[in-house]
Amino acid sequence: MKSPVKRLAKFKFRLYVAGDGQNGALAINHLTTLCREYLPNRHEIEIVDVYRDPKRAMEDGVLMTPTLMKLSPAPVRRIVGALSQERTVLQTLGLSARHP
Fold it and tell me: Whole-prediction pTM value?
């Protein structure tokens, strides 16, 4: 009898940025680096520019950029800033250095 394959959750993120500013670029870089390291092949990142889609930002209650939303797995989490504090970001997202 085959053992069941443990299916790992896919993480979905939405990152709100304001144009091509430095803080947004840093947040994108930090998030992609963290995802490559801690969630290889298990993440999806959507980037939303609040200048191009302000209505969407307002619908999600985003008042500052950059703002990261972890949409899944539940619970939804938000982080405001350039995501440079790796330990804090991982903890807020429910990840750890040992996370598969």
Answer: 0.86
